Amino acid sequence: MSGVVHVSAAVVVGDDGRALVVRKRGAHVFQQPGGKPDPGEDALAAVVREVAEETGIIADPGAFEPLGRFSDTAANEPDHRVVADAFRLRVPAGSASAGAEIEELRWLTEAEIDAAPLAPLSRNHLIRFAWR
Predict the structure, then answer these.
(1) How far is CA 47 from the centre of its chain?
(2) What sequence ranges are listed for the domain Nudix hydrolase (predicted)?
């Protein structure tokens, strides 16, 4: 691995029990909404901003529950690892719309995750928090 990418990511869960995943433009796999913090921005501020930009969901920072820091192979940056500060956010079902660089979004049930094309960080670490 030649590099590390730091991001903030959100496990967004609808009140119907489905988890929101997004596919960025040019990507082949889905992942949790989120992205890289701007200079001087902390992890929570970054996830609040990224969720709003990518999904249109405007949420109070206090609504984000910290889940921890997780690392895996980066899905969209060859030879990199991604290190994510992750948060869970519960929202009304269907409250998202694709924005920013998002090509597609999906609400997944727990039964659908095995067949879904998910990024390693999502599949191996984050998505399970939707149903805990």
Answers:
(1) 9
(2) 2-131
Domain coordinates in residue numbering, the chain: 3-131
Question: What pTM was computed for the model?
Answer: 0.94
Per CATH, the homologous superfamily of domain 3-131 is Nucleoside Triphosphate Pyrophosphohydrolase (3.90.79.10)
- Mapped onto helix, strand or coil, the DSSP state of residue 119 is coil
Q: Tokens 């990507």 label which residue?
A: 27
Q: What is the pLDDT of residues 88-126, one digit of tens each?
A: 999 998 789 899 789 999 999 999 999 999 999 999 999
Question: How many other C-beta atoms are found inside a 10 Å radius of the C-beta of residue 63?
Answer: 13
The helix or strand, by DSSP H or E, that contains position 104, with its residue range, turns out to be strand 102-108
